Amino acid sequence: MSLLNEIMDEINSVIGQVSDDQLNNAEKLITKDKRIFILGAGRSGLMAKGFAMRLMHIGYTVFVIGETITPSIAKGDVLVSVSGSGTTKSVLEPTESAKKIGVKVIGLTSNGTSPLAQVSDAVIVVPGATKADDSVKSIQLLSTLFDQSVHITMDALVLKVSRRDNVSNDQAKATHSNME
Fold first, then answer.
1. Where is the SIS domain positioned along the sequence (predicted)?
2. In a 10 Å sphere around its CB, with 0-12 CB exposed, 13-18 middle and 19+ buried, how is residue 96 labelled?
């Protein structure tokens, strides 16, 4: 078996364990009348930024925590927090603060019993290997399997939202950057 096939088998195994019910619960929190904030660290943060971009493409007001143009978060907003372990302090602490002021939280983590999962209004468990937990075996380094799988999961969530909102590919293309 080629290395690429082995990687794809790992990803397929993880994606096969992601709950449709959890995706549906998260989808309900993402509505056009809410501002969406995105939070993640390291590679998980990069995957989260891709999610933010796709939400923008389908017409959402979305901000990435840590960017200089990100406004303060407020009661009624939605925060999407991504942490493989569910314990990353730079993700967990701001998430807990947001929750205290009335922000709805969508958490994506590999650990369904983690502090991030517990503080989330909707949690999506993506059980890929992470740097902090090797109970899921992977041939890949550190949290690569989680990062790949969470990227696909968030893309699936955007697709669900776009279908619900009747946003076509052509409409999404119209918001794509024209400064390239």
1. 26-167
2. middle
Is the pLDDT confidence value at 131 over 70? no
112/122 Cα distance (integer angstroms)? 11
- CA 176, CA 180: separation in Å to the nearest integer? 10
What percent of the chain clears pLDDT 70, i.e. is strictly above it?
A: 96
pLDDT at site 129? 63
Domain annotation for the chain: domains and CATH numbers:
3-165 (3.40.50.10490)
Q: Tokens 């096969």 — which residue?
A: 16
59 vs 179, which has greater pLDDT? Answer: 59
pLDDT averaged over every residue in the chain: 92
